[in-house]
Structure prediction request, 75 residues.
Amino acid sequence: LVRGVHIRSWPTANSARLKTLGRMGSKVTITCFVTGQKTNGDSIWYHTVRPLAGFVSGSLLNTGHDPAFKVPACW
Prediction:
């Protein structure tokens, strides 16, 4: 995870910022993924439930591959 990641209300870079994570290495809990607006060449966004419900661009998370292995699609 990079520093200053935004948890957003929808899987787009223009949607409302719900929370900004501070330090590099902050943890988020994801439940599923969706295809959304492409950011940094990646169109996968993950639905988070911790520390807050919302969406984070896959390009900003260290998942190893997008979509991450064994993470189901949201819809």
